Amino acid sequence: MSVTNGEYQRRDARVLVQETGIEDERCADLAPSLAAVLVGTMWHIVFLSTTLTKASTVQPAYLLYNTTKGAIEQLTRVLNKDVGRKGIFVNAIAPGPTGTELFYKGKSEEMLKTIANFNPQGRIGTPEEIAESIVFVSGSSWLSGQIVAVNGGMA
User: Fold this and answer.
1) Model's pTM, two decimal places?
2) pLDDT tens by residue, 24-38
3) How far apart are CA 75 and CA 132, in angstroms?
4) Cα within 13 Å of Cα(42), Cβ side
5) In the chain, which ranges are continuous DSSP H helix?
6) Residue 105, class by beta-carbon neighbours within 10 Å (0-12 exposed, 13-18 middle, 19+ buried)?
7) What is the pLDDT of residues 98-139, one digit of tens each?
8) CATH assignment of 40-150?
9) 83 vs 17, 19, 52, 54, 146, CA distance in Å?
10) Which of 10, 26, 45, 142 gets the most CB atoms within 10 Å of its CB?
């Protein structure tokens, strides 16, 4: 029997709900954007947002995407206030342009060069750099309720 990553995420979110006694089990439905990491005796929830929520030059095609990411950022702040009392840390990572197959799809070399030059390092971030930031946030015993921009200084 094959279990998909999404099924693992949904199961892990339900376990988090059951283990902590969070009253609203609808939180389990957030699993696709949720990474719950057990670090010692601390639970960490790390949501994924985007640097685009801080940009003023976002094109209309990104309206729905930015709206949902803005909701994730507010969820991070409010959920932190609720579950923080139970020893659960809630944060979000807001990556900038990240070199994934999906990100590169349909973009010309000229467009990629322009995007890379939006940040001081003149390059596009890597998935490994985003993963490092999630590990960093998940290892903190004081960082909570924050949206951490991980974008090489572009915003």
Assistant:
1) 0.73
2) 444 444 444 444 444
3) 23
4) 15
5) 5-20, 63-83, 101-104, 109-116, 127-138
6) exposed
7) 999 999 999 999 999 999 999 899 999 999 999 999 999 998
8) 3.40.50.720
9) 10, 12, 27, 26, 14
10) 45
